[in-house]
Design a protein that fits this description.
alpha+beta; 2 domains; 8 helices; globular
Length: 191
Amino acid sequence: MLPDPRPYFAELADPRRATKNKLHPLQDILMIVFCAVLSGVEDWVGMETFACEKEAWFRQFLELPNGIPSHDTLSDVMGRLAPGVFAAAFLRWSQSALPGLAGGQVCLDGKTLRGSRGLDGAVHLLSAYAAKARLVLAQQAVDGKSNEILGLRRCRACWICKGPSSALTPWAARRPSPKRSPKAARTTCWR
C-alpha cells in the first residue's frame, strides 16, 4: 500500500501571493491533482470534474473551505510550482513506498518516442515499472536503440527495490521460452 503523500508535499512553498483571492489551500490543490492523475485523468477540466464527483470523499481529509477549485486554478497553481522541488517531494514519497515493493517485479521497457526524430536521431527511453504498485520508478534516455539490459546501468531507480544490479536476475532467464529468446523480448522483468 502506498503511504499518504500529504506529509511529503507539506514542505512545498505556495507560489501564489497572499491576497483575498487565494481561496484554496495549496495542499487541497495538490491532493486533488495527485488523486486525479493516479485515477487516470489527463486534463485540467477532467480533474475538476473528478473532484466534483468525489467531493464528499475529498472532504473526509481535505479542508476545501471554498469548495472544489476550478480547472483554471488547478492549472495555474501547478504551473507555478518549482518543478525541481515538486519532483524531489514526489521522489521522496515514491521511495518511501519502495520497501513494501521488495521482492516484486521491476519491469524494464524500451520505447522510441514517436515524432522525436531530430538532428541527433529519435529519443529512446528506458522505463522501470514496479508491477505490484503499478508505479513508474524512473525513465532514462538511452543512446540508440540499445538493449534494455545495457540501459539498466544508467537507470539507478531500477535496482532501488532489490539492491545493486548484480543482485538482479533476469525474469526471462528464469523462465526460458522455446518460442522467444530473452533478446527478442520487448519488456524485461526483474525480480
